Amino acid sequence: MKVLVLNSGSSSLKSGLYDIGDVLPEDPSAWLWQGTIQWNGDAGQVEIRNGRGFSRKEKLKISSRSEATARLLDTLWKGEASAVSSLSEIDVVGHRIVHGGPAFEDPVVITTEVKSAIAAVSAIAPLHNRAELEGVDIIAQLLGAVRQVAVFDTGFHKKMPLAAAVYPGPYEWLAAGIRRYGFHGINHKYCSRRAAQLLRRDPNSFKLVTCHLGNGCSLAAIRDGRSVDTTMGFTPLEGLMMGTRAGSVDPGILTYLMRQSRVTGEELDEVLNQHSGLLGISGVSGDMREILAAVKNGHERATLALDIYIHRLRAGIGAMTAVLGGIDTLVFTAGVGENSPEVRAGACRNLEHIGVKLDLTKNSASPADQDISDPGSLVRVLLIRAGEDWEIARDCWQLLH
Asked: DSSP secondary-structure letter at 359?
């Protein structure tokens, strides 16, 4: 079964092609081709590699998501990077859908009704769901009647205990679908399973906290293979400090600004999502690499931004550990989690009282899918490369095989 995975972002598109036989492998060894395209305005960059060792990066002009998708998929069956002779070889296309709302937990074959239900919750995650639905339509135009499957970022958290899922507002909120959904669930689920493989443990027998740290950030408390709490909530805005997102703030600040400064809901949404977080505090960037460089140059606001980020991350790990009643494994994943020894070291500092102790040499090397904890650490600390695309491919195989 050839499974094409499409991960549509607001200004990016990640894709992968997997060839999975009658037995589902434990790791993503079945990949044939991977591609990423990013654009800003009409300028873009594409990066392609295939399982034969071919790799290429190039800049190009992009006028629309439709053009970006077509350009990316062209490399899948044309030229040096090609992995199939025709797009008709693709059996199924799996899509990452950020918000499944109250209707969806498990992966589902996309129908007109499913698309309508995804569109109905687009107002909660507008930058994501609308882009992903556009990706579904583009695939239908390019590949015709190929089967398409939706895999939901909220699905892994859907069975959180009600004490973790329900907001302490009016009870009527719950009936209206206002509850904590959680996000990054596809990668949290993958990291839970991958941690069990690396440690040779039963995935249903231990407690771990997974730290998904990218431009968006969230933690998950996972017990016996199930999410029991997470830091994101009704939208991807709640929780940790992020690249340009504020994370959790006192809601009284928002009502204060609406009363005193006549700020509209749309203006608040833009400020909280686009002009807060690392960017808002530092004034430098929402990119952790640029923040760390500014800190080394003595930039005070960048230093404050990093301190807030680490403080909230460490506090979140402590909260997730308390929910679990202890911790066996701490996982770092995604762009910042995988590539920033400084952030990992800062997060683990002051956690020795719960048994966390890093091996500083291993941590500095940032080895993918490795244990970076000190041999004497009571808690294993793992660095795991994000595996959303592979998890989506697995879900498609399991649904349709």
From this structure: -
CA-closest candidate to residue 397, choices 49, 48, 26: 26
Instruction: Give CA–CA dist 366/163, Å, rounded.
Output: 36
Please tell me the pTM assigned to this model.
Answer: 0.93
Distance CA 395, CA 401 (A): 10
Smallest Cα–Cα separation from 89: which of 4, 205, 216?
4
Q: Give φ, ψ of 49 to 5 degrees.
A: -150, 155
| Residue pair 13/44 in contact by the 8 Å Cβ criterion | no
Q: Which of 234, 186, 194, 235 lies closest to 212, judged by CA?
A: 186
Which structure tokens are listed for 312? 């909230």
pLDDT tens digits for range 73-115: 888 888 888 888 888 899 999 999 999 988 898 999 999 999 9
pLDDT digits (tens, 9 = 90+) for 261-308: 999 999 999 999 999 999 999 999 999 999 999 999 999 999 999 999
Which residues have a catalytic role annotated? 153
Please, what is the end-to-end C-alpha distance for the chain in angstroms?
Answer: 8
**Residue 224: how many other CB atoms lie within 10 Å:** 12
